[in-house]
Backbone:
């Protein structure tokens, strides 16, 4: 019995060693040397994945491997994200009033001084407006200090077969501790907004690091839809991006825009609707040329800018932005490390480090970098899978079926003829 147990234990070790270590250098097409940080002690390090890597790696990074002489090195991949902690600050609104055609204003009492806050959201059911908003702060309602003199709020609503609503009624300002806030909305000849309330917030944000990209532009006019179509080409697919900004010298326009993505410029997927405007008038001066959408890794982005009966606006440039991808792994000085990628059939690895990484302070770690991408000399292309005979020669199956049907028909005819030549006689 003891002998059987030892044999079973050795077999289990052998089995796990070969099942868990699925890395084989012949299956990965590309590699990149990891350039060390000059550390003298073993510790976790962070590697920001270079942009050029994304056109060779699977979109979900499932084929990414960190390898040294011993084989796979466990790592955890992460997207650098904003860290935002938003808390509501109780506030009582009073003295809501308006001066026809000039301003609508109200005061917010936060209850006590010393409470930190950094933005106010105006609650209004009004639609299709643009307003400049001034926010002031005070501790005694006698001396007021300006926190934001040129905040802007807007709403763009279309109630049609395909209804659209885009709005932003939040005004931010530098973190303050005033007890009272005076919010003044400049109507400047427009109908006053219907103000139902206001909410005060405190937001503490750590902005994620972003990479910027300068896509090439292809601009055309869609006469049927009366829209300008701007196709932004990143050059390769796989690069993650999530927001953008256009450049134009035009002013005094207000346009609805739809954002699509694609890898072939044929099949387009709607990502989000946005709203562009540049207004320069005595009543209102403001602009909105940024747009955001759910993260995409497609090569092409299309902006469909609705012109209606107005002339198209001239787009002079555009920039796209994406958050940094990074990996975390344990680095040992004096050892060579490589990134391997380019294996469409690779499964996503699962390492213990995914659970451990939450206890590691990434901000204090050393950073390493990736060298140029190069072909893996050990790579062996997979054998091309042969299609079934019926798929390689699509005419074979119909031909065989035709022959069978013909033979069955022939047999039926012969049987029918034979029965006619030898009819059964009745008694």
Residues:
């Amino acid at each position: 019995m003891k002998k059987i147990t030892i044999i079973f234990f050795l077999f289990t070790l052998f089995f796990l060693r070969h099942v868990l270590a699925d890395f084989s250098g012949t299956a990965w097409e590309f590699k990149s040397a990891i350039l060390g940080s000059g550390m003298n002690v073993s510790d976790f390090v962070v590697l920001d994945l270079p942009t050029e890597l994304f056109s060779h790696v699977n979109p979900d990074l499932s084929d990414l491997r960190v390898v040294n002489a011993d084989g796979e090195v466990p790592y955890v991949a992460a997207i650098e994200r904003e860290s935002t902690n938003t808390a509501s600050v109780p506030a009582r609104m009073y003295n809501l009033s308006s001066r026809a055609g000039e301003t609508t204003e109200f005061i917010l009492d936060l209850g006590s001084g010393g409470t930190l806050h950094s933005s106010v959201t105006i609650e209004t059911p009004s639609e299709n407006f643009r307003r400049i908003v001034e926010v002031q702060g005070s501790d005694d309602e006698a001396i007021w200090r300006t926190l934001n003199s040129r905040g802007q709020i807007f709403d763009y609503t279309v109630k049609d077969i395909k209804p659209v609503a885009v709005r932003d009624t939040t005004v931010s300002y530098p973190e303050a501790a005033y007890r009272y806030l005076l919010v003044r909305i400049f109507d400047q000849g427009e109908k006053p907004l219907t103000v139902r309330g206001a909410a005060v917030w405190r937001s503490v944000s750590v902005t994620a690091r972003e990479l910027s990209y300068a896509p090439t532009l292809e601009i055309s006019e869609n006469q049927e839809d009366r829209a300008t179509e701007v196709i932004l080409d990143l050059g390769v697919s796989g690069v993650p991006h999530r927001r953008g900004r256009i450049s134009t010298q035009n002013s005094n326009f207000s346009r609805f825009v739809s954002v699509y993505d694609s890898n072939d410029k044929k099949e387009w997927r709607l990502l989000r609707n946005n709203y562009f405007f540049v207004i320069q008038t005595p009543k209102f001066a403001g602009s909105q040329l940024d747009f955001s959408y759910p993260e995409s890794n497609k090569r092409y982005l299309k902006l469909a800018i609705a012109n209606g009966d107005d002339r198209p606006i001239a787009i002079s440039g555009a920039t796209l932005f994406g958050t940094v991808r990074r990996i975390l792994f344990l680095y040992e000085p004096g050892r060579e490390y490589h990134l391997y990628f380019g294996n469409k059939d690779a499964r996503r690895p699962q390492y213990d480090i995914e659970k451990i990484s939450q206890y590691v302070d990434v901000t204090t770690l050393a950073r390493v970098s990736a060298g140029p991408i190069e072909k893996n000399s050990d790579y062996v292309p997979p054998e091309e899978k042969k299609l079934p005979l019926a798929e390689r020669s699509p005419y074979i199956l119909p031909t065989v079926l035709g022959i069978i049907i013909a033979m069955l028909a022939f047999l039926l005819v012969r049987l029918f003829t034979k029965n006619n030549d030898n009819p059964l006689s009745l008694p």
The chain has four helices and 28 strands. Helices lie at 2-20, 353-356, 389-392, 396-421. Residues 91 and 110 are 4 Å apart (CA to CA).
